[in-house]
Amino acid sequence: xxxxxxxxxxxxxxxxxxxxxxxxxxxxxxxxxxxxxxxxxxxxxxxxxxxxxxxxxxxxxxxxxxxxxxxxxxxxxxxxxxxxxxxxxxxxxxxxxxxxxxxxxxxxxxxxxxxxxxxxxxxxxxxx
Amino acid sequence: xxxxxxxxxxxxxxxxxxxxxxxxxxxxxxxxxxxxxxxxxxxxxxxxxxxxxxxxxxxxxxxxxxxxxxxxxxxxxxxxxxxxxxxxxxxxxxxxxxxxxxxxxxxxxxxxxxxxxxxxxxxxxxxxxxxxxxxxxxxxxxxxxxxxxxxxxxxxxxxxxxxxxxxxxxxxxxxxxxxxxxxxxxxxxxxxxxxxxxxxxxxxxxxxxxxxxxxxxxxxxxxxxxxxxxxxxxxxxxxxxxxxxxxxxxxxxxxxxxxxxxxxxxxxxxxxxxxxxxxxxxxxxxxxxxxxxxxxxxxxxxxxxxxxxxxxxxxxxxxxxxxxxxxxxxxxxxxxxxxxxxxxxxxxxxxxxxxxxxxxxxxxxxxxxxxxxxxxxxxxxxxxxxxxxxxxxxxxxxxxxxxxxxxxxxxxxxxxxxxxxxxxxxxxxxxxxxxxxxxxxxxxxxxxxxxxxxxxxxxxxxxxxxxxxxxxxxxxxxxxxxxxxxxxxxxxxxxxxx
Lengths: 128, 498
Hints:
Shape of chain B: globular
Helix content of chain A: 25-40%
Strand content of chain B: 25-35%
CATH class of chain A: Alpha Beta
Radius of gyration of chain A: 13 Å
Order of helices and strands of chain A: HHEEHEEEE
CATH architecture of the largest domain in chain B: 2-Layer Sandwich
Number of domains of chain B: 4
Helix content of chain B: 10-25%
CATH superfamily of the largest domain in chain B: Probable tRNA modification gtpase trme, domain 1
Number of helices of chain A: 3
Structural class of chain B: alpha+beta
Number of domains of chain A: 1
Number of helices of chain B: 11
CATH topology of the largest domain in chain B: Gyrase A, domain 2
CATH architecture of chain A: Roll
Strand order of the largest sheet of chain A: 2-1-6-5-4-3
Oligomer: heterodimer
């Protein structure tokens, strides 16, 4: 099990690089990813998590979480930062937080905190 | 104090609604940011106000810190917040509106106190997914874009125009903005029935059952318009802004059509029309500060129920000391809607330093003060003697007026009903239609207004009841969520200064 700070870094790199293979490798059967810009916003297990990221990478030009501060206690890592999203050539910036916990298969939990009100979701589909 | 201790105390104080204890945790120039706030809150005085409003907007608040990590002067937290919103009347199924979410929070300490607290959470689940959709069957006001940008989430229809009613805050936040600050309302749907010509004043007096003859240019006056059966059509505020022009700023009824019909082929030398005048209301104790930045006229000297024609924010406009707040404020009537959004933005810019909020009408305060709104539709089958404004009927005024003989007959036969206040002894839902009831003696009545009173910390209402229903009586009111007892009282519920 990798330290949560490492997991957070790996996940954020995979997100910004739109690296679906990396997402697949770190998503196990008991992984949980929470993203307020998706419906549902709680994705459980590798299948849902990979499908969700396929949608994200297909619909967004780019997405990047810029960490301003972070800390971890060995079980959990929390970061404060800015989420930079580019879609259809237009950039959005959101204040954001991220919480990561390691699991046996990679991601135990990754929770993105952001105010998604009045923002078009990152996928028009429901992730099933 | 460590970041974790400070945040734990902050959460505990928030749940208790102890805003003083919360503000004490911050440095004098401390900053509080949260996803639900439009702008950061800075400094002790502002923190005290904002934290009071936020923590008093809800009840049964519970907070839970699930993860806490400290790193020197910084703290990182993940947790959950649960609360029940006060004053909405709840959902259609009877359950309360709740504000439940998980959050992350970041704390920066300085000399043992909080220098910065930022809370991030998703407010999307707390609101409807989309704003209400419009239809081309109804008109938008010229300020529509501004109301959408201000996150209006519910419109009514008034004079066939969309009327922004609810924005994305709790009822208590809007109530405090009106009583302690300044608010901007889009009331472009208040249409003006314009009377021009030599007979304009006399024709006005003919349309109203109140004596309008004392009016002079520069005056405003509350009026009551009835039909020929003596039923109330609307209760306009009448303005006399120019020597040759009178406006009846009316409620949701086609008063212009009515007045034109009466004037048509008659001997009245009057021109009746609806000008392109879409008003705004700037209401609240800080309204004068905002208005002064946009106008050189002597606004301080304006008495209640007067109006002036002047330049305002670079546009020709009429300003009046009127409004639907039951308190201090102005209405702005631009003489054209061509520059509507420029006017809207100018008021917002001028109001920024005063913390101006875009709100709908604050029904809670209006009902506390006994300020209602009457239209031919929703108050149909009601004559003015049955209304709170019964004292404004001047049956003996020198001029003849529409409905006079019918009202004389009603008075002669005895007025069957009167309007009273209700103090509910429990929660009631938001009123969507009149609630009919019968008292224990068999006397009928109907509740026409019901809302939460933040001044009295309970639900209140206004009902039209049979004369047999008296003050002090206890009624059982059936409403869509059940039955609630209510005591009959006088209106207004609170005085202006409370």
